[in-house]
Amino acid sequence: MLKFDQVLHANLSGLKEAVTVWGETVSKLEKTKEKADSLRGKADKADWKGENAGVTQAFVRKTAKEFGDALTEARSIRNILRDAESEFQAAKTELEKLVAEAPGKGMRIDQEGVVSHLIRPDSRSKDYDGPKPEVADFEAMNAAIKAAIDRANNADDVASRALRGLVGSDKMNFSGTSYDSLKAASKAQDAEDAHAAYELYKKGDDATPQEIDKLNALFKANQKDPYFAEKFALEVGPKGSMEYWADMGDPSDGSRLGVDHRDKLKELQTNWSLTLATATHSTSPEMEQWKADVIKAGSEPIQTRGTSPYGFQVMSNLMRVGDYDDKFLKDYGTGLVVTERKMTHDGALTPARAWHAMGGMPSHLNWQGGGLGDDPMVGFMEGLGHNPKASTDFFNGNIDLTPENTKDDKKLDPFDYFTKDREWPEELNDKGDRTKEPGYNALGHALESATTGHPYDADPEGLKDVRNKENAEVMQKVVERYGSDPKYMHEQPGIDDSLGKMGAAYIDELNRSLETDSDTTMEEKRDSPFGFNDAKGKSRFGSEFDTGLLWNRGDAINFMGIVAQSETGHSTLSVAESLYTTSVLDQVGPKPGTNFDEMDLTNARTTLRIGSEAQGIMDETRMAQIDQDYAKDSEEHKKAVGKTTEWVKFGVGAVAAGGVVALTGGAGGVLVPLAAETVGGAVTTFIGMEADDVAEKYEKDEMLKEKSDKLKETALHDGKELSLRPGIAYAEAPGWTDKQYQYLDENLVGYVRTSRLHARDNVLPDPYEEK
Prior knowledge:
The chain is mainly α. 57% of the residues lie in helices and 3% in strands.
């Protein structure tokens, strides 16, 4: 793989000379071929007899053909070298341009391609008026550098493989392969790889472990390559993937792959899913028919030697990874739901009964953990979890249950169906237990995608706040459903972590609702410091939300309180609240280094008051749930209390970029919207704070000697102290004088200690009691 400095400083003179030399060779061979063709023409017309006709005539024809093949090969080599040189030069020129432009943008690029400030912010003089690059500027520069290097690497890979192929293995003959461009060579390579993958596919579960490795290698080498993906999907056929995967999961035919090489099948499932996902983005007539045929086959049994899963069951397990096409997912989901409702006779039977294998052994369709893959909705939800547009449309729309009948209007609301009405089947997990967790975990992933606008497992680096009105509409449903009764979260194991992440992604709107004086008003408090949107103060969710709320204060309290009853939900929302509060202080409080008076701190006080109250709501509801779940003074009760303060460690793994903070530590991949695109000093200070080992004292043996009530009192006190962190970070931000720091610490941090009590004034949701 080529690196930044290799592309930037590449000496292309030798490659240019090679292009010239091969061009000259082509010219010479064109003349030679003319003579050879002329000689062959004469030989063909000659009326030779006997041995001379059988030997000389054949020799002349073969020699003439070889000159033709030599010319074809020479042209191909010239074309490959010409286009490769052009691609290398374009990449090199782009990097040179970026390096030259960087200082004018306040950046520098080192020899390894690392982008940094030309002058670090903490080293700038007071009268500095040069460029001040922001996070978005660094993201754009890094993206441009990567694109240029990728362009060079792609050209290098295709050219080297094409040249090796042109030389071939036959030392006695020219290959005669024709490439009129590097792009043509790339397509030819894709087709060759797709056919090689098809030949391995035909072996089914008779393939050796080494052949499965080869198949995985072909998929990896062509990852996200649309031409390869389409060629493979079409060659295998719409039912081919289903038949292959069903056969792989048939436990009755004696194959050892699923016994001895589960890791290889897990990798194959991932790679197969990624390949088909890429293929669905093609709009060629052949692929449009392929997609239609896949959905049609969904309601049909796929027969193997000992199993007969439905097509939807098989295909859904090949959707767990990758970004499938929006329309295909919508059409697939519609077909899947319609089929399930028919099989269950509109709910008279449970989905588990409908999808249960009748006779024979169950198929092992999923090798990635979380069940064998019987329930096709699980894989489909994972597919939605990787496609925000499709998941948002799916949960905001409705499904016509009788598409063949235009006279009725029998509709189903997917959100209601999957979050309330559907009885999710139990799946056998990796521990051998039957549980509904795999299904609800996948549902949570789909809802994360629908509400945040990002795939649920997206790499946090470089993500931005992309929420729109449609995302918010799904979030309104989530808050209404899961904030209405604790049973929805507690009776859906595996969804609490996703609810915490969704709450974190809308922590700004939750705070805006908490600030209001009434539990039922849908109008924000005038000049609220929360809910920042664009530079003009307009809401990203539509004009009605410029001052209107997504939900009222009562709903916000219920949602945050119920989600915080979960250990994971409490942790995720707590750190999100602290980070968001800190970012608002950066935005609305006086800027470090400026003078201010008492009135200038009004918004800062409001911000800290609401942040502290929110943390109090979450701490109180978590403690109440612990009391409900465990017997007082039991070891489990005490340990659960001790863990309520561990969230403070999560902020250490935070990365600020593009107007969001991504928690990459304990909360992993959680997006928290900031109050401004530019990360301020308080946020930087907060992220840089060392994690206090607050929770460690609870883990010591002495903890078990204390009474639960005493430990709860201590934990709530520690929770209050932790809610001071945003104020402390603001007071300690670079730029304040010692006197200003002392004043802020006294007036803001001290203020939070008294405002925390407001949490107990709220009507908090009851803890969940298992019936």
